[in-house]
Specification:
There is one protein chain. The chain has 394 residues and is an alpha/beta fold. The chain has 2 domains: 140 residues, Aspartate Aminotransferase, domain 1; 225 residues, Aspartate Aminotransferase, domain 2 (3-Layer(aba) Sandwich). It has 14 helices and 13 strands. The strands form 3 sheets. Strands 2-8-7-6-5-3-4 form a 7-stranded mixed β-sheet, sandwiched between helices. It has a 4-stranded antiparallel β-sheet with strand order 9-10-13-12, covered by helices on one side. α2 crosses α11, α5 packs across α10 and α13 crosses α14. It is globular. The protein binds 4'-deoxy-4'-aminopyridoxal-5'-phosphate. 4'-deoxy-4'-aminopyridoxal-5'-phosphate binds next to α5. Its cofactor is pyridoxal 5'-phosphate. Keywords: Aminotransferase, Pyridoxal phosphate, Transferase. Pfam families: Aminotran_1_2. This is Aminotransferase.
Length: 394
């Protein structure tokens, strides 16, 4: 029998930890603090049902046939208007519609990375970004923004791009302050690296008004040509099931990314694009936001109170001021968090281990805990189960 050609070598680098915690949500009775899911209570089900039916009837051509690769002009215009400021005047040429933020990250890798090239990535790093770029086998320079000797110029030198989630990073929940945003931009200008601003949580500020984005800070009032490649998504503002995301960048960058998209999926669903466009235009996301913030703020507070009650002997963490996650360090260095994650499943709770947010898969010191999916009661029970699991290592 002829041997089949082997799989690409990067597949051998992935481990099974990721699939364990991603599929744990299916286990009956388990409290899932491991995923990054929005609460079903905030999905605008009736509005999306009504709008999607309406757009198919009113715009059969846009929704039913093949769409232009960069996106429907209608949605590109809505997004250009939504993100335009005096400093950053945008047109549809600055916008590429993608199939979720995930495809945006993947296209960026295809266009900007040759195999083995360097990425300066905010550390710890979003797992989906690591997955998107794994086929390019990049070299990672971790950017540790909270380190006293953090030097973005040094980190970005020689990198094709720098990757950051300035608003409530996944996994760390960290908010990058205004001064550091400016430093990142200055370093990108100095080194010539592109600056990827991945911003799914940009609206989820619980304690203060939003800071300006890197995109906003980098404009000078002329047509946008800056170093920022901004990635947005409907996933946390409307619903992840629509699978609509976008990239905002200089027109030449959008053209290059559109070429990559053509070979990837040709275009994103016209029904979903038109639904997202109308939902934004008709204020569905903006009107829902106060309720979303109230719900998530209460859940954040509930989780932090439960951690305080059950886990202060075992974990250290900072209360995040937005987003969806608490990032905690395990005090006992003997506990490896991958092992902890597996044992947690026996105790009926799931968390995600820090190793999956490390390009080298080595960091065993921390865990990511999600607070948006579960009710305060479940969060409290989940924290108790986590404490029981940690105590079982004694
Ligand atoms: N970036 C980050 C940091 C995320 O947390 C997510 C969602 N988990 C995404 C991008 C992409 O989300 P989506 O593909 O659902 O738009």
């Amino acid at each position: 029998m002829t041997d089949r050609a082997p799989f690409a070598s990067w597949l051998n680098d992935t481990n099974d930890v990721i699939s364990v915690f991603l599929s744990a949500g299916q286990i009956p009775g388990l409290i899932n603090l491991g995923g990054g899911l929005p609460s079903p209570d905030v999905w605008p089900v009736e509005e999306i049902a009504e709008i999607s039916g309406r757009v198919v009837r009113e715009y059969p051509t846009e929704t039913m046939t093949y769409s232009p690769v960069p996106g429907l002009p209608y949605l590109r215009d809505v997004l250009a208007k939504r993100y335009s400021t005096d400093n950053v005047p945008l047109t549809r040429d600055n916008v590429l519609v993608t199939t979720g933020g995930t495809q945006a990250l993947s296209l960026i890798g295809q266009v900007l990375l040759n195999p083995g090239q360097k990425i300066a990535a905010q550390s710890p790093t979003y797992l989906g970004a690591l997955d998107a770029w794994r086929p390019r086998t990049p070299e990672y320079q971790p950017m540790i923004l909270e380190a006293a000797d953090f030097d973005p110029v040094q980190d970005m030198t020689g990198a094709q791009f720098a990757y950051t989630v300035p608003n409530f990073s996944n996994p760390s929940g960290r908010l990058v302050g205004l001064e550091q945003r400016k430093e990142l931009l200055a370093a990108a200008q100095k080194t010539g690296a592109w600056l990827i601003e991945d911003d799914p949580y940009g609206k989820l500020y619980y304690d203060s008004d939003p800071l300006p984005t890197l995109l906003e800070l980098s404009g000078d009032g002329t047509p946008y040509s800056g170093p920022v490649i901004y990635v947005g998504t409907v996933s946390k503002e409307l619903a992840p099931g629509l699978r609509i995301g976008w990239i905002i960048a200089a027109p030449e960058m959008i053209e290059a990314l559109a070429t990559a998209k053509q070979g990837s999926d040709m275009f994103s669903s016209g029904v979903c694009q038109m639904t997202a466009a109308k939902a934004y235009e008709e204020g569905v996301a903006d009107n829902a936001l106060p309720r979303v913030l109230a719900l998530y703020r209460a859940r954040r507070d509930a989780l932090c109170a439960a951690l305080e009650k059950h886990l202060s002997d075992h974990l250290t963490w900072e209360k995040p001021c937005g987003g969806m996650f608490v990032w905690a360090k395990v005090k006992d260095p003997a506990i490896q968090t991958e092992q902890l994650m597996r044992r947690c499943l026996d105790y009926g709770v799931c968390i995600s281990p820090s190793s999956v947010f490390d390009p080298e898969g080595k960091d065993q010191s921390g865990i990511r805990i999600n607070f948006t999916l579960n009710t305060p009661e479940k969060l409290s029970e989940g924290a108790k189960r986590l404490a029981d699991t940690i105590r079982s290592f004694d």
